[in-house]
């Protein structure tokens, strides 16, 4: 059995690097400084070192040296690598290299600092600047109106003021190794113009006056002046002179402008240039002044008129009927009167420098016609008379006359003459017209022209005049009748039974009487110049019959006797007779004859009728006709013998009959 051992074998364990470490040195250097960077790392086998500057290899040794320049600033990385373990460890170091700082300058946000506006100043510098600082009048900024940007590079002053924010301003820059300050900066604050002022002068000038206008305004920089007249430029200087003419009147505007602040202020002045006033004239509202109407007078003037004044008969107008327009240019007279408003009228115009008056104006007030009057003359004329009608009326101007006859024009003169004829009677109207006042007054006159009257006739109301009835007569006539008159038997009518119509034309007799009312009757017609009478008219009064009378004869006749019955009656006209036998007509004559027979016995009635009066009268007669006598015992036996009435007995057909007569 054998054994054997190897030589001892020591294991060389490769490890690391566990960590890479850069030897501690400062991180900040000025340019030109000697800088050495050294790196270490525990490793088996020893590590391979690589230095990187901002990621770019610059050395493969553990220690790396260089002279500082701005290019050397940045991140340095030490890389420690073990190719056996495959491990790599890194360590980094940032180096800051500072160069000296150049002098900063103050740069403004705007070319010009303008009052009330915000203004910024920037501290302009190059280099590695860590801090900006500002100084105003040597003191750090303070107060709510000073604003700094977060990096303090920009200083802003809100709402600049000319007095508080002039400065001087200084800005300072610094880093851990260097610092530097700007030159002092004084702020020229532009302001204004605050207000433009025109040097006080008068506002009113006559033509030909020398006028100078001067304007001023506080401003930085000084303002530019522009003068405008009524909006049009006339000068670019502070002072502006001219000789006054009417063309120079108007509004003058001084414009003071600052192109830096962008502000402009204006001041205005109104110049009134007055020329002498020409003589005014008085114009009327209407061609004609008419009484009772309103009338206006206008003061017509040219030029610069400030006030109008009126004078009536040399005095200022007064009274409730005088009215002036608000500007006093127009004077109105209410309800003109011919006596009070003649004038003369004068109007005056004036301005602050001049005045002038019109010539006197006398008002010719037209009036009327007040009333038209026809000269008094008679109204009634006979045919052929000479008639003259004359009319007058008070008026200014004189009226135009027109005569109308029944509405138709017949003359245009104040006086109108003609010879009376029937066609010329009627209403004559005088029209008096004033074309200027528009008034017309009229007067009328009725002219009655009478012709001779024709003979009237009497007309009756009925064909027949009947006694006891009313009867009327009418006076029938033609022509211009004013009055009717009646005559009965040559005398005027009288008595209660005589009645006349209101116009007397109709005469009525109540309850005619044959004996009293025969007449004769006459009617008469009249007018102021003529009269005429009718022919006499006799009234034939119809009357009756008053009574009917049968001529007295015996009442009893034997058979075969000749009997004549006769009847009479007073009447006008004569009556118509009718005989009735026991109610049956038997004759139409006044006398009626027959031969007696028993059948003709009975009651005979005479009827007398007047067809005009409408009256009828009757008379009766009982006629007894006797036949042969018979036995009368029946009547005696029957107790009639002792009757007080007369009685007769006649027999017929073998019987007895009694007849009794009252």
TrEMBL record:
<dbReference type="InterPro" id="IPR052598">
    <property type="entry name" value="IgSF_CEA-related"/>
</dbReference>
<dbReference type="InterPro" id="IPR013783">
    <property type="entry name" value="Ig-like_fold"/>
</dbReference>
<feature type="domain" description="Ig-like">
    <location>
        <begin position="17"/>
        <end position="94"/>
    </location>
</feature>
<dbReference type="InterPro" id="IPR003599">
    <property type="entry name" value="Ig_sub"/>
</dbReference>
<feature type="domain" description="Ig-like">
    <location>
        <begin position="280"/>
        <end position="366"/>
    </location>
</feature>
<protein>
    <recommendedName>
        <fullName>Ig-like domain-containing protein</fullName>
    </recommendedName>
</protein>
<dbReference type="InterPro" id="IPR007110">
    <property type="entry name" value="Ig-like_dom"/>
</dbReference>
<feature type="domain" description="Ig-like">
    <location>
        <begin position="104"/>
        <end position="190"/>
    </location>
</feature>
<feature type="domain" description="Ig-like">
    <location>
        <begin position="545"/>
        <end position="622"/>
    </location>
</feature>
<dbReference type="InterPro" id="IPR036179">
    <property type="entry name" value="Ig-like_dom_sf"/>
</dbReference>
<keyword id="KW-1015">Disulfide bond</keyword>
<dbReference type="Pfam" id="PF13927">
    <property type="entry name" value="Ig_3"/>
</dbReference>
<feature type="domain" description="Ig-like">
    <location>
        <begin position="456"/>
        <end position="540"/>
    </location>
</feature>
<keyword id="KW-0325">Glycoprotein</keyword>
<feature type="domain" description="Ig-like">
    <location>
        <begin position="369"/>
        <end position="446"/>
    </location>
</feature>
<dbReference type="Pfam" id="PF13895">
    <property type="entry name" value="Ig_2"/>
</dbReference>
<keyword id="KW-0393">Immunoglobulin domain</keyword>
<feature type="domain" description="Ig-like">
    <location>
        <begin position="193"/>
        <end position="270"/>
    </location>
</feature>
<dbReference type="InterPro" id="IPR003598">
    <property type="entry name" value="Ig_sub2"/>
</dbReference>
<keyword id="KW-0732">Signal</keyword>
